[in-house]
Structure formats: structure tokens, C-alpha cells
Design a protein that fits this description.
single chain; alpha/beta; ten-stranded mixed beta sheet; two-stranded antiparallel sheet; 12 strands; globular
């Protein structure tokens, strides 16, 4: 785990604003002081009622490590009204959210940051937590050309009748999914979801069916391989890794955290009464870095 003092020393944190759709859209951007020649860009998309800044704190600034090591610029954008216009038809809080062009905003943000920081446009990644995962799913359908890879955390694909995404032919994008089996806010097995009868989210697929959907979308028809990861200490979390791979196809991997909650493994420690059990295994930042090769010198 990176030392917090090193993180603060090796990055510059800025508030970045772009104009899009008649609105001023803000993001917190973490930039390496000593970047590689063409760093990657990682968009970290927050959950329902969070902001970019609160997502950064909720995740204990773990994603800042990507910038501290010089390999990526990390952006934490704000949704309008703290609610993304993501992949599902269901309205969480405000109907206005479903009128916002968040896909266009994120595309514009990528373009501006790529120009300002000499980012490698072939290495743009989205990390979506909870409702931010729904926004990431929408990007995978509506703007797959922007992404070199995506991470879903505590998020399942909406069922077809609850899905609001482009119906254009898919483009293969590598995908990493992380989901706890005891997630109280985005149930691992899917189904019709709400929070204690409020904020209805409509019907969703299971985490496994979500992974299978994206594997098929990437042209993978080979059966997955499954392995159990050694328990970590001190939490001794049990993790099952399901990999969908095939020659010349973009891979999909699902990390199933047994008894895990609506948390970011190796990062968030949200209160258990709301988010469920946290986990230190797998460490999300290290896992995604390995999966996408983010720490490779370029």
C-alpha cells in the first residue's frame, strides 16, 4: 500500500471545470508531478449522492496512487445533482438526471485532459462504483471508442426492460468486475432492487450474468476458468476469480468477494450498517493496474 505522505508529495490536485450542455461541469483532477511521457487517464465515477471529492475520500484516495507513481492522471468528475444519467431507465431521485448528457460531458472531459496533459488517448479507463458503474456501463455502450478498459464495482447490468443504452453494435472493451455476495445496495444475484423500499432501481442481472453478457459482447464463447485466491490477512477474505478469455478477444474478469459488501476492496471502509462488510482482498488499485498494465513503463 502506498504511503499517504508519498501520495500527497508526488501529485498535484486541481479543480477542473469544462462547459458542456450549457452547464459548468467540475472534476477533481490528480496529476503526477513526474509523469511518464504519455500517462494514462483514469476516470473514477462516484456513486449515488456522492461527489468526485467525496468519492476520493470514500476510496481513501487509493486511486491517487496511479498518479503518484507517474503512470496516470486521475479524474473524479461530479454528476449533476449527485446522480449520473447511467445505463438504467429507473430514476433514483431526480427525473432531471435522465435529461443530462453525461456521456457527452465525459467525452469532452477526456478530450480536454488529453490535450492539457499529453495523455495517451489509447489508454483511457473508467472505474465506476455503484451508480458510477451504471454510468460506466452506459459509456461501454454509447462511447466505447473512448475507453481502453473499464472497472465495475458493486454494479450489475440492468435487465433489458430497465436498460437505457445505445443499441448500436458493440465494440470489445476489456472489463474487470468486483462484487460482494452480501452487497446490501446492489445485490450480487440481481433482481428488482431498491433501498429499503425507496429509490427503486428496477430489475438487474446477477453479477455472473453481467460478466457473461460482456464476455459475449467481446466475442468470447469459450467457457470461463475459475480459481480461488488465497485469503488475505487480517480480514481473511475469500475471493473467487472468474476469467473469460479467448485468443484475440478482450478479456472479462469477475472477482466475487464472499460475504463482501458494497465496498471498494482495499480502499473503502464505509459503515457496515449501510455498506456491509469491507474487504482488503483483492486490492482494487493493484488488481486493475495488473489487469490493464497501468504500471508498465511507456
Amino acid at each position: 500500500m502506498d504511503d499517504p505522505q508519498d501520495l500527497a508529495t508526488n501529485v498535484v490536485v486541481d479543480r477542473y471545470v469544462v462547459d458542456h450542455g450549457g452547464r459548468r461541469r467540475a472534476s477533481t483532477v490528480v496529476v503526477p508531478r513526474n509523469p511518464v511521457d504519455t500517462p494514462a487517464l483514469v476516470l473514477v465515477l462516484h456513486g449515488f449522492l456522492q461527489t468526485g471529492d467525496s468519492m476520493r475520500e470514500f476510496s481513501t484516495r487509493a486511486f491517487d496512487a496511479l498518479a503518484a507513481r507517474g503512470h496516470a492522471v486521475v479524474a473524479y468528475p461530479d454528476a449533476i445533482g449527485r446522480e449520473w444519467n447511467g445505463a438504467r431507465k429507473a430514476v433514483m431521485l431526480s427525473a432531471t438526471a435522465k435529461t443530462i448528457d453525461d456521456v457527452g460531458f465525459l467525452r469532452r472531459l477526456v478530450e480536454d485532459l488529453a490535450e492539457q496533459h499529453t495523455i495517451d488517448r489509447q489508454r483511457v479507463f473508467a472505474v465506476g462504483y455503484s451508480l458510477g458503474g451504471q454510468m460506466t456501463i452506459r459509456l461501454l455502450h454509447d462511447a466505447p471508442d473512448v475507453l481502453a478498459g473499464a472497472v465495475l464495482i458493486g454494479c450489475n447490468l440492468p435487465a433489458p426492460e430497465n436498460r437505457s443504452v445505445s443499441d448500436q453494435p458493440g465494440r470489445a472493451v476489456p472489463l474487470l468486475s468486483i462484487h460482494g455476495t452480501a452487497d446490501p445496495l446492489a445485490p450480487y444475484e440481481g433482481g428488482r432492487v431498491s433501498f429499503r423500499g425507496l429509490f427503486s432501481k428496477g430489475a438487474h442481472l446477477s453479477a455472473l450474468d453481467t460478466a457473461q453478457y460482456f464476455a459475449a459482447r467481446n466475442g468470447i464463447d469459450a467457457p470461463p476458468t475459475v480459481q480461488w485466491l488465497a485469503p488475505d490477512r487480517p480480514s481473511r477474505t475469500t475471493v473467487r476469480r472468474t476469467d473469460y478469455t479467448q485468443a484475440d478477444r478482450s478479456p472479462v474478469s469477475l472477482y466475487t468477494i464472499v460475504d463482501g459488501g458494497h465496498q471498494i476492496p482495499g480502499a473503502s471502509k464505509g459503515p457496515r450498517f449501510l455498506y456491509g462488510k469491507p474487504s482488503d482482498n483483492p486490492v482494487t488499485v493493484e488488481t486493475m493496474s495488473t489487469f490493464f498494465g497501468l504500471f508498465q513503463d511507456r
